[in-house]
């Protein structure tokens, strides 16, 4: 437990830390990667270059400091961090490294304002958070290793099949190279791909499992990431997987992790709405297929948004959800359709999933909403749901990459 003095000091410095949070976290990563380069293997360097990772850490630090006297409010944040750490193989001995460089970064940025009293309080606060995370991660590691087919760290898988789903998405069907069993996982979870790229040191990538549990394979449906702007690189690992990883090749995977899940054994007792934008379909399709496989009687709604038919992935599987005993409504909406997309039945609508569309096609009053996609899509969905009066407790979303606030900027 934190001392009352530490709580008061953290409260006092929170505004100053918040004002300098991204500067502190950028300095932190610079110092840590320079002083302890061995930890770079646990970080997606593309997120460092884009600034997403420092921004996400800044948000986490501010959230922790702001709730320093109400740590129970951070339960979901701790779970997200713990799941991500276990997917990467982070160990307790890494926490002191982070603590040292975080304190040094605060000293660098805040200068004389970072007194010994303040640094002692921050160190104590970090220690408490570290203990909470380590404890939760120990539980996750024990669960991962104890279940049938489970493992921690890395395990080799062989590419059994490679299926083109659209112009930009390819599915990889993966089976254990050792011929062993696959562990159970919760629909919505991801696995970590470790690639020793020929030109860049290993940089892990998390990809959602796009098929349901209980199959004889893991499936990853991966989008080929292109440069978001002129002068920036294409996605290094996604392009490598598309172009250079083929049937028969072996890749190292981390175990299934993640907190954005549905448990088919305890399904929601109210209608479920899945809202997929682009490649955000992957975790949602795993969830929906899993619920349909149980012959759930609760209605499901699956609304999938894409630019047009050329990039629309996994469309047949989404349509196929309605073929079982579970009552399922599927709709496809394109925002820039190709000629004939609408008349040929490839989509039902043209436009965007917005407030009016949700009000017309989903049971606003009592449904659980699960949504995933690019940040603008998620911002639009959250805004629409809030305007329609959908309680936050009925809204569930997944970020691809470091968690970001869904706010207009």
UniProtKB/TrEMBL annotation:
Cofactor or coenzyme needed: FAD; heme b
The protein's Enzyme Commission number: 1.14.12.17
Molecular function GO terms recorded: FAD binding; heme binding; metal ion binding; nitric oxide dioxygenase NAD(P)H activity; oxygen binding; oxygen carrier activity
InterPro entries, alphabetized: Cbr1-like_FAD-bd_dom, FAD-bd_FR_type, FNR_nucleotide-bd, Globin, Globin-like_sf, Globin/Proto, OxRdtase_FAD/NAD-bd, Riboflavin_synthase-like_b-brl
Reaction equation(s) it catalyzes: 2 nitric oxide + NADPH + 2 O2 = 2 nitrate + NADP(+) + H(+); 2 nitric oxide + NADH + 2 O2 = 2 nitrate + NAD(+) + H(+)
Residues in FAD-binding FR-type domain copies: 152-263
DNA repair found in the keyword field: no
EC top class, as a word: oxidoreductase
GO BP: cellular response to nitrosative stress; nitric oxide catabolic process
Ranges where the Globin domain occurs: 1-138
Keywords: FAD, Flavoprotein, Heme, Iron, Metal-binding, NAD, NADP, Oxidoreductase, Oxygen transport, Transport
A Pfam family reported for this protein in Swiss-Prot or TrEMBL: FAD_binding_6
Family the entry assigns: In the C-terminal section; belongs to the flavoprotein pyridine nucleotide cytochrome reductase family. Belongs to the globin family. Two-domain flavohemoproteins subfamily.
Protein name per UniProt: Flavohemoprotein
Organism: Roseiconus nitratireducens
